[in-house]
Amino acid sequence: MSLLYNTAILLGKELRTEFRSRELLTTTAVFILIVLVLFSFAINPGTEEAREFAPGLLWLAILFASSLMFQSCFLREQTNDTLSSLRLAVSDPFAIFLAKLIANTLFLLLTELLMLPFFAIFYNIPLWSKLPVLILVLFVGSLGISIAGTAISAISAQARMRELLLPLLLLPLLTPVLVVSSLVTASLLDREPFVQWKGIGFLAVFDLIFLTALWLFGEYLLEE
Amino acid sequence: MGKRIILGAVAILLVIAAAYASFYVAPEERTMGVLQRIFYFHVGSAWAGMDAFLLCFIANLLYVWKRGQKYDWLGVSAAEVGLVLTTVVLITGPIWAKPAWGIYWTWDARLTSTFVLWLLYVSYLLLRTLIEEPERRALLSALFGIFAFIDVPLVFFSIRWWRTQHPAPVIMGGPGSGLDPTMKKVFLFNVLAMHMFAAFLIVERYMLEKMRSEVDILKREAEAQ
User: Which residues lie closer than 8 Å to A71 by C-beta, 6 or more apart?
Assistant: First the structure.
């Protein structure tokens, strides 16, 4: 019970810090927008090609954006020297991770929702009718990205060259998320759309496995 | 020291004998001919590489649990040797694939997950170079190694279940259920030889890492004085 209570308090802190400045959200949203525009310059897709490639591009943009977004996750605690007080304050260090990964998922999801209209317009893809399932896919995918990303950002924050190291460690780890969520999204936005529940289930399994790993090994990531 | 020389000699002799067996003892494959003979070396390296990564994973777990320096040394040694063997797999594969399939590379499940595996362990070794403090390096790289190893089956199944709608080349004459008995013997002999070779390399690398850490300690003591 104290785990949930601690998590709720820490989550409040994360959200307060972000919504005071909204730095992370605006920069990440703009970044996704830039990447989406650049992709369309790079491959210059026709209408049919856009349908085929756009879901993959969207997820690639999300992946890149996340690897930038998670940089500050533990770095902020380190530069302000607040990590040790955080660890003293909670009985279970998993609460720190839980709060951070929920916050990261929320931020990521929020920027995705913000960017979705632009995505639909640029790549000429009608989204409206599939929105509920699409949001579900975005949620399970982003949750997986955030769980792995929070764990890895705790590692990279303690190393040199951390800005480069985080994507280097994180992106190959996220291959399954990219593969599955792109394909699930693609079949959802197809001319004859269908929902790949197996894919959504797989993403949920990915989330669960990494969440368990983080629960088991998280405390060692924060050792001094 | 003596034991290590014997192990090395045995391993190298076994590899030579296995190469001889693959070229001269194993019968010629009907459709692919001489080309199929690379299969023994290729799959032998693949299995030995996988087992090296498995050993690395076990060492990582043991380090997190028991915190002995030796588990860190074992982890890095096994990861490096596994990486070398996987590199062999990734080079011999395309050599075989070009004449057999007509292309060097295809994004099928086994190829892609081997490549992602290779990338993950490159990242693991890179991470180690970017943390100075030995204990922190050992712990954080062990944790990353654990995450990476957990990821491997997920990578494999995600690609196998969702990317195979892109047709993979199917002209796979070689491995399968109907392996000729002599071929099977030669194949298993190759697997044994590559494992011995991997074990020899891991032991040597382990001793090197141990020596490095001892030198490091001596250096620090000298600086402190």
Answer: A153, A156, A162, A163, A166
Mean pLDDT of chain B: 88
pLDDT of residue B169: 47
- Containing structural domain, residue B123: 41-164+195-225
Would you state the pLDDT for residue A139?
A: 96
Q: What is the pTM of this model?
A: 0.90
Among A167, A126, A129, CA closest to A145 = A167
User: Using CB atoms, which residue from A169, A176, A217 is nearest to B127?
Assistant: A169
CB of A1 within 8 Å of any CB in chain B?
Answer: no
What residues 177-196 of chain A have any CB closer than 8 A to a CB of chain B? Answer: 179-180, 183
Chain A partners within 8 Å of B146 (Cβ): 213, 217
Residue B179 CA to residue B175 CA, distance in Å, equals: 7
Q: Do A220 and B119 touch (CB under 8 A)?
A: no
To the nearest whole Å, the CA of A111 is away from the closest chain B CA by 26
| Residues written for chain B | 225
Cβ distance of B130 and A217 shorter than 8 Å:
no
Tell me whether B159 touches chain A (CB under 8 Å). Answer: yes
Q: List Cβ neighbours of B27 (8 Å cut-off, separation of 6 or more).
A: B180, B182, B183
Beta bridge partners of B33: B29
Listed in sequence order, the DSSP H helices in B106-180 are: 109-129, 134-162
Check pLDDT > 50 for residue B10. yes
- Show Cβ contacts of residue B105 under 8 Å, excluding neighbours closer than 6 positions: B94, B97, B111
Number of folded domains that form chain B: 1
Residues of A in contact with B140 (CB under 8 A): 155, 158-159, 221
Contact B161 A198 (CB under 8 A): yes
Which residues pair with residue B29 across a beta bridge? B33
Nearest Cα to B112, choosing from B149, B159, B170? B159
Among A75-79, A208-212, B186-190, the range with the most confident prediction by mean pLDDT is A208-212
Q: Could you read off the pLDDT of B77-104 as tens digits, one per residue? A: 999 999 999 999 999 989 988 888 888 8
Which residue in the block uniquely carries the two structure tokens 């076990």? B58
A116-155 per-position pLDDT tens digit: 999 888 888 888 888 999 999 999 999 999 999 999 999 9
The pair of structure tokens assigned to B147 is: 């995450």
